[in-house]
Write a structure and sequence with these properties.
Layout: H1 2-20, H2 25-37, H3 42-59, H4 63-83, H5 87-98
Length: 140
């Protein structure tokens, strides 16, 4: 049971930080604030989460800074789930709704090639889905 909670805490923090950098955040924010708040003022908790979101966006892909925010959320989630184990079901529901869809045990990789410029070979193995878009006229 403890391993399941640890996995939920890790997955939850990573997913929440990931959501913060997407448009889906506006849909998930109030539900996550209710989970994180648990008896506290929802607007106050929402503001705290918004401060974390601002840091995530400012990090601009800096893995260390984003990792710091995920670590802070892991601490909060671990404390929350110890104090109120029922919150786990609510968190799992939000994660199922907003987490990226993947097959269990798989990892998704995305490669983007812009302007048709290839400086190195691009190799991808496994299940490959191509979404080719022609460059705009005059850009080839």
């Amino acid at each position: 049971m403890e391993a399941e909670i640890a996995q939920l805490v890790t997955t939850g923090a990573t997913t929440v930080v990931g959501l913060m950098a997407t448009e889906a955040w506006t849909q998930a924010r109030s539900r996550l604030a209710a989970i994180f708040g648990r008896g506290r003022n929802a607007e106050e908790v929402s503001a705290e989460l918004e401060e974390i979101r601002i840091e995530v966006v400012r990090a601009d892909g800096d893995a260390e800074l984003v990792g710091d925010q995920a670590a802070a959320l892991r601490v909060r989630l671990r404390r929350l789930l110890r104090e109120d184990p029922r919150a786990a079901a609510e968190l799992e529901a939000v994660l199922r709704e907003f987490a990226p869809r993947q097959q269990p045990g798989t990892t998704a990789y995305y490669q983007t090639i812009n302007n048709g410029t290839f400086n190195e070979p691009v190799v991808q193995a496994g299940r490959v889905t191509y979404n080719y878009q022609s460059p705009p006229p005059g850009k080839d």
